[in-house]
Write a sequence for this structure.
């Protein structure tokens, strides 16, 4: 609208004035929003595709599921997909069979993935491909089929590179196109179920960042991006859900890199882990309280390929003592608040797909 009755000079003064105020308001909002988004109301009924249960030594998964339901109700989560973390032989390995009984008591609230205990520990036990015989592959495929027969919606959490971020949280590495990952891709394609993949992104190799130097990580990290591209190309019918987009510990999981892979491979999906302002991560989808513009562009370009996977750890009230899951659980509330705020910033057509539709389709969740 023209400024009636003003000359060109006062119009340009007014523009400078408006611009200065807009700038101040923007700065103030940037400072206020991280605290204020705790109050963002939860959108109705979203789906979290990446949630862990901590039952402790007593394996109290019923108690952990109760904690999960309480938090889900608080933050508007209709359904959560629970998955065993990616484990290796050094740990007391457990898989989905430990907690499915507890989940079945809450009809319609949970689905699950399996293999994070049994299949992932097998893959890492056979990190050296020379040791893999045909019998190992056959047994591995049979174990994978049984997981789906027993009701899992897919495989997870599987790990290619898993950086150790705390004591008792293991370093794991095999390339994503390790021979047993290829066997798993064939089973996933045949059963039409996705594989949830934890693969910290390294483009071309790098020294381990100093903040991860204390744990069991080696001094140098190998490239992981090329292995993922080869896995995606190997069987285009195997859907890969690359976990933890939007909060990248190492720096190569950029919106640009994800976009390039998505354009080359129609079987790549990403679950987003939205973190708060304090989290020491790179390539954050939520930054300075706002939606990062590169992420916004990517989500709008591929709205059918993204879901929300908060990576929350729900701990039973009966658990005494610590461990990495109990430590990570302290981040649940800021993570869930940040996620709800992030969802409120998305264009409505993108939000509808991220919040619910994509997860329903990819994990074939029954309509309620
Ligand atoms: Zn993970
Ligand atoms: Zn996880």
């Amino acid at each position: 609208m023209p400024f009636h009755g003003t000359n060109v000079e006062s119009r340009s003064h007014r523009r400078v004035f408006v611009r200065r105020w807009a700038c101040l308001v923007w700065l103030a909002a940037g400072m206020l929003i991280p605290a204020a988004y705790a109050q963002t109301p939860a959108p109705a009924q979203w789906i979290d595709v990446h949630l862990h249960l901590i039952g402790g030594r007593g394996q109290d998964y019923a108690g952990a599921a109760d904690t999960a339901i309480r938090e889900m109700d608080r933050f508007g989560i209709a359904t959560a997909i629970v998955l065993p973390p990616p484990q290796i032989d050094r740990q007391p390995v457990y898989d989905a069979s430990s907690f499915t009984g507890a989940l079945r008591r809450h009809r319609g609230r949970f689905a699950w993935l399996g293999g994070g205990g049994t299949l992932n520990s097998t893959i890492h036990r056979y990190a050296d491909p020379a040791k893999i015989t045909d019998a190992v592959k056959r047994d591995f495929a049979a174990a994978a089929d049984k997981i789906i027969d027993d009701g899992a919606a897919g495989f997870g959490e599987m790990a290619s590179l898993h950086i150790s971020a705390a004591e008792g949280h293991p370093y794991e590495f095999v390339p994503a196109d390790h021979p047993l990952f290829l066997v798993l891709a064939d089973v996933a394609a045949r059963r039409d179920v996705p594989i949830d993949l934890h693969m910290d992104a390294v483009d071309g190799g790098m020294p381990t960042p100093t903040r991860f130097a204390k744990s069991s990580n080696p001094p140098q990290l190998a490239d992981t991006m090329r292995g993922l591209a080869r896995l995606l190309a190997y069987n285009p019918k195997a859907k890969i859900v690359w976990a933890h987009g939007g909060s990248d510990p190492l720096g190569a999981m950029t919106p640009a890199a994800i976009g390039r892979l998505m354009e080359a491979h129609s079987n790549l999906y990403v679950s987003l882990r939205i973190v708060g302002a304090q989290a020491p991560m790179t390539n954050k989808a939520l930054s300075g309280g706002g939606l990062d513009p590169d992420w916004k562009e990517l989500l709008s370009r591929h709205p059918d390929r993204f879901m929300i996977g908060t990576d929350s750890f729900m701990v039973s009230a009966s658990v005494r003592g610590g461990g990495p899951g109990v430590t990570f659980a302290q981040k649940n509330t800021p993570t869930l608040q940040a996620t709800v705020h992030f969802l409120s910033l998305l264009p409505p057509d993108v939000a509808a797909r991220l919040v619910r539709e994509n997860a329903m389709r990819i994990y074939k969740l029954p309509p309620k």
Notes: The chain has a mean pLDDT of 89.
